[in-house]
Amino acid sequence: MRKPAFRFAPSPNGALHLGHALSALTGSLMAQRCGGRFLLRIEDIDLTRTREQHVAGIVDDLRWLGLMWEQPVLRQSTRFQAYTAALKQLSAADLIYPCFATRSQIQAAVADDPDPTRDPDGVTLPPPALRRVSSREFELRRATGEPYSLRLDMPRAIAAANAKLNGAPLTFREITPAGTIETRTCRPDRWGDCIIRRKDIPASYHLAVVIDDATQGITHVTRGLDLLAATDIHRLLQVLLGLPEPLYHHHALLLGPGGTKLSKSAGDRSIADHRAAGHTPEDLKLQIGITLPQESSPSKDNISVLN
Predict the structure, then answer these.
(1) How far is Cα 40 from Cα 7, in angstroms, rounded to an integer?
(2) Which regions in the chain score pLDDT beneath 70?
(3) In which region does residue 290 sit, left (phi positive, over 0), alpha (psi from -120 to 50) or beta (all else)?
(4) d(CA 213, CA 188)
(5) CATH number attached to the domain at 5-89+167-304
């Protein structure tokens, strides 16, 4: 029986805001209530956007909020070899393929389509003609140094997962606000042939997060509702790669004045701004209104379903 393990995994490409505080505090408090572990992971896989001052700022903000976590802190920038190994496993099963399509090419290809196919994040999916190239064309273009991503062949991936599950549906288990566990069906097909390794980075967020959660023994993934749909891909990859299945809890989002979620790119007020204004950690906790599941301490039955 594994000790429950929770994590907070921010990207160091900007300052933390109140939404990050809600997510970090939710995971930490749930870990405390069930006698579990709480870990910090720095998702710095995108080296071009990572700034060390943001890493330091993350640590300072979390400590100011009163959070404590196990050492050492895992950094994705040290994990490239693990992601490459997972990609080789998927490639050996013929579940991924190279794609040279750029965003501008995709937009041009669907310019006359009034309703192009989009994934749950709103990203336009490339038409079939732009997805795959022949082996000969791939070798010629790669030889010139043209960058390419790797996409998951979704129909093949779903079929492979179905075989591994002996025909059972692909599902995930969600801890509800009432503290119960609901089994929900995944719909990975709505993501199309999603990118599993970016052109400039040796993995995508989806691949890196499932590999690292497994490595760190994460049993409970707590995150915002904006990542609920991404669970489709994460569960699919966990099955394909033979990784443990965690429990999930997707908490409500904090919204700004315009009804949109808080974000770094929108310039929403950071935790550091609140600190500079003289606010206390208690002020912020009252402002974000943390709501935990009614019973987040896993019962014997809940623990028994952990892999």
Answers:
(1) 6
(2) 1, 256-267, 295-307
(3) beta
(4) 19
(5) 3.40.50.620
